[in-house]
């Protein structure tokens, strides 16, 4: 019998997006497992996709040092969500002073701001999805670059 306390670990990650009346996008990521309860909040300018505010709260974590990584989030204030984002996140939150969990949450959360911007102003779902496809072209396998 293999006894490993991590065999039954369940980790839940959730992303929430809200368009605000002030022309900004609110993004929230949460991560919960038996060792973590982390809430990450980001406010992005909808027009420029620039990060204006970013914060995180470690409600539960395996060590008292984990919350120290929150200080490194300020390095992401002012960056634009787009090309080079993964590298900027890795530089800001990598290494012994960073946090792999915050890094992973951001990698899943921040690109959603691009979707919000691409979907803005549409009342017809098909037209919105057509615009999202156009805006996301070349970013992943789901939106391949087409020769126009």
Description of the molecule:
- The protein has 148 residues and is an alpha+beta fold.
- The chain has one domain (12-136): Sufe protein. Chain: A, CATH 3.90.1010.
- The chain is 26% helix and 24% strand.
- The chain contains four helices and four strands; from the N terminus they run E-E-E-E-H-H-H-H.
- Strands 1-2-3-4 form a four-stranded antiparallel sheet, covered by helices on one side.
- A hairpin with a 4-residue loop joins strand 1 (12-19) and strand 2.
- It is globular.
What is the distance, rounded to the nearest whole angstrom, between the alpha carbons of the first and last residues?
Answer: 58 Å
Number of strands: 4
Number of continuous helical runs: 4
Stretches where pLDDT is under 50 for at least 5 consecutive residues are none
CATH fold description: Sufe protein. Chain: A
Give the tally of structural domains. Answer: 1
Can you name the CATH architecture? Alpha-Beta Complex
Helix content: 25-40%
CATH class: Alpha Beta
From the alpha-carbon coordinates, what is the Rg to the nearest angstrom? 17 Å
Strand content: 15-25%
Strand order of the largest sheet: 1-2-3-4
* Inertia-based shape: globular
- Mean of the pLDDT scores? 91
Instruction: Please state the structural category.
Output: alpha+beta
Specify the biggest β-sheet.
4 strands, antiparallel
Pattern of helices and strands: EEEEHHHH
Entry summary:
Helix content is 26%, strand content 24%. By secondary structure, it is α+β, with helices and mostly antiparallel strands. Helix 1 (85-93) runs antiparallel to helix 2 and helix 3 packs across helix 4 (125-136).
């Amino acid at each position: 019998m293999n006894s490993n306390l991590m065999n039954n670990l369940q980790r839940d990650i959730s992303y929430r997006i809200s368009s605000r009346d002030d022309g900004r996008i609110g993004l929230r990521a949460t991560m919960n497992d038996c060792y973590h309860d982390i809430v990450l909040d980001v406010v992005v300018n909808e027009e420029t996709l620039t990060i204006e505010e970013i914060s995180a709260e470690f409600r539960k974590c395996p060590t008292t040092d984990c919350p120290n990584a929150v200080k490194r989030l300020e390095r992401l204030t002012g960056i634009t969500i787009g090309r080079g984002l993964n590298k900027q996140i890795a530089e800001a939150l990598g290494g012994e002073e960073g946090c792999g969990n915050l890094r992973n949450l951001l990698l899943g959360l921040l690109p959603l701001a691009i979707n919000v911007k691409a979907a803005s102003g549409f009342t017809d779902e098909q037209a919105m999805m057509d615009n999202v496809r156009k805006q996301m072209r070349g970013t992943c396998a789901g939106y391949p670059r087409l020769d126009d």
